[in-house]
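Box S2. Input/output pair 1.
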Amino acid sequence: MTEDPKKFGYALVLLALPGTQGIYGLLVGVLSLQKAGLLGGGDVTLTVWQGLGICFACLPVAISGFYSAIWQGKSSAASILMISKRPEQIGKAVILPAMCETYAVFGLLVSILMLNGIKL
């Protein structure tokens, strides 16, 4: 990057990608609080089983986000190294971390579906 500052834009995208798992976790956390009645002022009384259901509904995004962020960070670091040496390969460099992102999105989807399936 010090030799060619124009590559900063490419690197910024690759640096931001592993942080999206945190956004997915935040989204599921807010949805869980809303489901539990802690947001929006609703008066909801939960049973132990409903509370456990909400807790277990958060696990898919937590587990998939944790592991995909680790692997996405590694692939993003390798991709940054790749574009520093061969900037014409930016398309290939973005594909690798995006593949890891897919599993985090799957975890997000499963958690949202599980939260919507909990009857209060």
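Box S3. Input/output pair 2.
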Amino acid sequence: MAAALLWTAHSPAAAQSVERGAALYAAHCSSCHSADQHGDGPAHRGVLGRRAGALKDFDYSPALSASKILWTRDTLKAWLRDPEALIPGQAMDYQLDKARDREDVVAYLATLKRLPSPEAAAR
């Protein structure tokens, strides 16, 4: 996994941020989330650029479903800093207190690119 993470980054500092973000994600996020499978929280593959509450096969809170948030690096960092401040009434009760931790987790999330659909892959 580390080799794949290093390959996706453009500089040694970015690679270190992604690798650190993957470790933080495993330690703090993976009890509810994963890249490809829903848990208590939605799967994160392709989260960057996706509208909040948009996955059809996940039961989001009404507040998140009604939000108009687009997940960018900045909105993800704001979410990880204080989910309730960003979207009042949402269901996530965890936050990352350190700015560097938020930066690194978002750097890791940015590597989780959306996979092509089976139809597109078959072409």
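Caption for Box S3: Confidence is low (pLDDT under 50) at residues 1-9. The two ends are 28 Å apart (CA to CA).
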